[in-house]
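Page 42, continued from yesterday. The earlier attempt failed because a stray header line got pasted into the input along with the sequence. Redoing it now with the clean sequence only.
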Amino acid sequence: MSVTMCSGRSALELLPSAASLLADVAQVLLPPERVSLWQWADRHRRLSSEASAAPGAWTTLPYQRDVLDALSPHSRHERVVLVWGSQLGKTEMLLTLIAYIIACQPGPILVVQPTLSMAEAFSKDRISPMVRDMEVLRGLVADPKARDAGSTIFHRRFVGGHLTIVGSNSPAGLASRPIRYLLMDEVDRWEASAGAEGDPATLAIARTRTFWNRKIVMVSSPTVRGASRIEQAWLESDQREYHVPCPHCGQFQRLVWARVEWPDGKPREAQYRCASCERLIHHSQKARMIAQGRWEPGNPGSAIAGFHLSELYSPWRSWGELAAEWLAAQGNVERLRAFVNTSLAELWDDQVVGQVSEDELLARRENYGPQLPDGVALLTAGVDVQDDRLECSVWGWGRSEESWLIEHRIIPGDPTLGPEQGPWLELDRYLTQPWPHPRAGALHVAAAAIDAGYATAVVTRFCDARAGRRIWAVKGAGGSVPAWPRRQSRSQRGRLFVIGVDSLKASIIGRLRTSDGPGAMHFPVTVEREYFEQLNAEFVKTTYSRGRPVRVWERRKGCRAEALDCAVYAYAALHGLMHHGVHLDREAERLSLLASPRLQQSMPAGTWLGDRPKGWLRR
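This time it went through. Structure tokens are written below.
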């Protein structure tokens, strides 16, 4: 007796279709095939035109594979540390991880950027284009423009989770909700404290405690030794470096800047010298070396995956380009530090830069005068105000910020008497005097910065009355304050410009070692040892605030620092001129063309040779 169904077909006839149905159900219910993150990226990741010079399909670079595997939610590494140079695809790897989480392993994500404005830019310029261009993400992420989406620029909802993007200076954003995936970007550029709440990294990590399968990623190019967040995280990791084989002898080695060489005057022809066979390696051979490279740990016992990579490995930058950039940074401490931090991904050590001894500086004095040195293109002055005197340094500036101390003068008198009395009258005459120049006939001080920390009301009144001559009242501030502000501050006492003295001091101290070429500093024979003692009066020291290392400038015991302060203010005045549109190298070039004696004689003394931006006043 056969079993029949209402359709008249036997159960046996239905078995093949049932098996097929069960297979389809199993396919839906079973977890997806587990592939490595970099393989998933090669299959699904798309680069957006807003962020890539080559938009389209993503191809994982050889040195990115192990990094992406460690970043994967399936990895055994709960924490990953990237000490990463620029131009190496760091941000794109973080975006790849975010895309994979949304598509395959949803959960709450927190991305912490240094500032709120950078968080907004990351959301608009990187997240939104990625969601738009990746087919695997379509329909999963709510549009923040939709009224009922419950999403904003800083909080994007997706199926099974959400993506929150905050600034390190936002305590509310760091402590608002539990997080499974924590991505901390450029941690060395974070604020030391999130308001009154303490270290922002500690606050953010606390949000992950409820997840047993959490992932914590810390990424940054490093900054200063002893004050770097990423430095401490790296020391706790397994410290992997990328080793590549020499194309000549096959010996694996880490690429280091010290082994990049080039002919004199030809940095674009730079090559790499093998540490084993000592043969030179051409840039064209780098791609094959990187393809055959491997990550080797320096601290294999750690459970934290740490990766360090510099631009020496970048497929988009040649060794010659890096050499040219390094040469251009010589004499400019800030540019050199940026190269060491962002291109080489190495820590900057203030002690390595060091200060030059007074004996070395005395031996470097030059006999120039009574005319200005030929290379001087414009003059600025810096004035320090003491309770019984004014001290003023006039500095000449030339191409690539090569500088000459023209004169350091002490003007005795009580600065509190009033802006039109005592030492102020002599200072006013001093700042208006002509300085003979071999090409231009004469130059005047183009701008001056006067410290308003003492006798503030008198200083601001003196400067306000002479604002048309670029006589500016300034007040120094430490930390990450820019050398010259975008706008002046106003108070009941008058107008002030808040200048970043830390960066200005660092540049001046670093340039003391340079005696020729870009950034070189020159001194006349008229200055004595005491001047150089004052110029060397301060040094950088690392202290701790709320458990975080902070770099501060400290004065040597028993030393005065008026010479350094005046140099800082004169350099700030140069930055003020550049802020108003003056291009120093252009002025130096125009001045160098004045070789005709007839042209020199026809020009009025003190004629301004440069561009005259809006509001610029002639003498």
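Notes: Residues 1-12, 25-30, 603-619 have pLDDT under 50 and may be disordered.
Reminder to self: strip header lines before submitting.
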